[in-house]
Amino acid sequence: MAGAGLPRSAEYLIVGAGVHGLSTAWHLARDLRARGEAARVLVIDKTAVGAGASGIACGVVRNNYFQPAMSELMAACVEIWEDNAEDLSYQGAGYVALGPPAQEADLVEVFERQQRIGYRSELHVGEREVAEHMRSLFPDWRAPGLSVCLHEHQGGFAHNIESVRGLAAKARAEGVEIVEGVEVLGFERDESDAVTSVLTDAGAVAVEQVVVAVGPWIKRLWELLELPQRLDVCTPGGHVAPDQEMWTYWYLQEGEVAIDPALFATSGGAVPPVLHVDSHAPLHDDSGRLVTDEPWGVYFKRDREGIQEGSAPIPKGHEFAVDPYPGATVEEDFSHMWAAALSHCMQRFEGARRSFRDVRSGGVGAFTVDNFPIFDRMRPNVYVAADSNHGYKMVAVGREIARELCGEHSSLLYPFRYERFASGDLHPVSQSPYPWS
Ligand SMILES: Cc1cc2nc3c(=O)[nH]c(=O)nc-3n(C[C@H](O)[C@H](O)[C@H](O)COP(=O)(O)OP(=O)(O)OC[C@H]3O[C@@H](n4cnc5c(N)ncnc54)[C@H](O)[C@@H]3O)c2cc1C
């Protein structure tokens, strides 16, 4: 029976068995044990481990962020991936971001910061230099008009559901209980607003500390915690944007082509880095027909059975039915567009559209009002991890939340506090057309 055996109390109750809930549970149980503290760490999920965005994510692990706080946090995340590569099904193949002249300044800044923080990467600027670097990796590289290339030698990708199960195994090995099929329906709070009891469809659980890590379901849990759905946002210049919606949904379009993965290897025969291309060059399909002359962008990586790729997200607005997850579908000509993009980049992918596979892929994410995460204590004993859909790669967030729950301060999470909307201490915005760069 779903929810059978749900304990009636827990010192720490974590809602959501995705990357953040499980990473928090793993690190928290480990830290408590190291301190000699005996405490029950309980994770509950309304469906199952990896049922949300973490189990469907493309799995890209990168550091390429224009915002210093994101970049520093990602470096910490990559360390955890590297240290636990096998358990978390991680491939440290690297990541390459390619862009048109409009993105040069941003990527130069990202590169310079990476050098300062010791993140291994190289930069190529100028169309000829970029093409030469890409041809050294892929002799049939042919995408024109790209004048900047940031090649991160750390990062890469991981296999989504395997890595989430790997995190669950690590948590269980530290003594964490994970109960699936239990949905949180409400919270009981005392006069100080601290949550005393979490109400579920399998009964109430008395709690001391709660962590809410529910990915795209955050709007509902935010409501249950009676947190504001609209707010005034102060910009760094002191301007106030009044009465903004807290949450917006975007649908991330992804798909797969079934080709021999060995076809997509570097010239040295290695697993290729994840490639992310933003281009202003007109995009044609293999028959020469114009697909778009608007700026476009794609990312793609080798998968077990072919290539997985994503492209422009579709904005869905402030209301969206997240159940059943992942919800929504790709745009009608999505497979056309991204097969053309693959072939635009490398000759070996001519005809890739024929191998498009209609598999469960893509999904919706809930973005915050400034498109960056909120990692903060939103009630005296309730910590919320709302990653604004940045976060499969962010395995270090759970480690940092665990530190905060143990009474320490996390300088990595501090820039993501909720108070930034009132103080204007927002993150800088890049030239990228997407809300996650
Ligand atoms: C298509 C797609 C591709 C992506 N690709 C990448 C990528 O390549 N790299 C990257 O870094 N990020 C990527 N992301 C973003 C990333 O997947 C998410 O930011 C991250 O997985 C969120 O993790 P989470 O732990 O917060 O939530 P989730 O993984 O969504 O887990 C939340 C869990 O909470 C449970 N839950 C919800 N409500 C309740 C409730 N009331 N009671 C109990 N349980 C509940 C759900 O069942 C679910 O299992 C992608 C996202 C999408 C949609």
Question: What this model shows, in words?
Answer:
With 437 residues, the chain is an alpha+beta fold. The protein folds into two domains: 1-91 and 155-237 and 370-417, FAD/NAD(P)-binding domain, CATH 3.50.50.60; 95-153 and 248-367, D-Amino Acid Oxidase, subunit A, domain 2 (D-Amino Acid Oxidase, Chain A, domain 2, 2-Layer Sandwich), CATH 3.30.9.10. Helices cover 24% and strands 29% of the residues. It contains nine helices and 24 strands. Strands 5, 6, 7, 15, 16, 19, 20, 21 and 22 form a nine-stranded mixed beta sheet that branches. A hairpin with a 2-residue loop joins strand 11 (195-200) and strand 12 (203-212). The protein is globular and about 65 Å long. The model has no long low-confidence stretch (mean pLDDT 94). Flavin-adenine dinucleotide (FAD) is lined by residues 15-21, 44-47, 51-54, 56-60, 183-184, 213-217, 252, 254, 362-363, 365, 385, 387, 389-393.
